[in-house]
Amino acid sequence: xxxxxxxxxxxxxxxxxxxxxxxxxxxxxxxxxxxxxxxxxxxxxxxxxxxxxxxxxxxxxxxxxxxxxxxxxxxxxxxxxxxxxxxxxxxxxxxxxxxxxxxxxxxxxxxxxxxxxxxxxxxxxxxxxxxxxxxxxxxxxxxxxxxxxxxxxxxxxxxxxxxxxxxxxxxxxxxxxxxxxxxxxxxxxxxxxxxxxxxxxxxxxxxxxxxxxxxxxxxxxxxxxxxxxxxxxxxxxxxxxxxxxxxxxxxxxxxxxxxxxxxxxxxxxxxxxxxxxxxxxxxxxx
Length: 286
Known about the structure:
Number of domains: 1
CATH architecture: 3-Layer(aba) Sandwich
Strand content: 15-25%
Distance between the termini: 45 Å
Order of helices and strands: HEEEEHEEHEHEHEH
Radius of gyration: 18 Å
Number of helices: 6
Mean pLDDT: 92
CATH superfamily: Nucleoside phosphorylase domain
């Protein structure tokens, strides 16, 4: 059978080459990985950055093509904890395969992280949610039609059939809710559904997605979470509600409005994520 999916030896060699390129710049051993989604770059300003590595300087590393995704790795400390931050992510709608989209997760996992913290922009379909609010992901539905684990499995990375009964770490979620309560931040908890994009959904599609149990919809996150869990990383993800996707009152949405909503919620998101990272430094989440 012909396939354009690289074999397991090639996959490992490509990831190892990117890891070696990072090690050529720094010998830092990050404990936490961070992914910053659309319009969510302010958290990077809290990082004491020691090294900045553009994606296009790393072999085999995909490059962000979407506005507001700067496309670089930041390596340093946040709240005294060593971190590696992806300032910008990739999406399948950019033309990348699911494996290419998640290549950076393989690399940052290879740097030694134990936990992946994800931020994402999403549309709110739950009528209790409002633009500019936050939702902690408790589960997800993948409707992108692709899976990054399709093809040869690398046993050293994870099992052929990884369990996904609890993709989002229970202890991390509990800690996030404690932090939100402490700072009087409204933090919903619900189900994220990922679609291919890049177009936004029709009214009928929003009704369908809501009917199957989703609270928010986005175009990313599930591939990264799938690969992170395949590699046995702890995962937590928080979405910013950038628009209200209520079919009966649906209005056109622009990227500028999405970025504006992200800016409204970003200080709250930064507080929660920073305190989560600090908890690792205090050994509260071991």
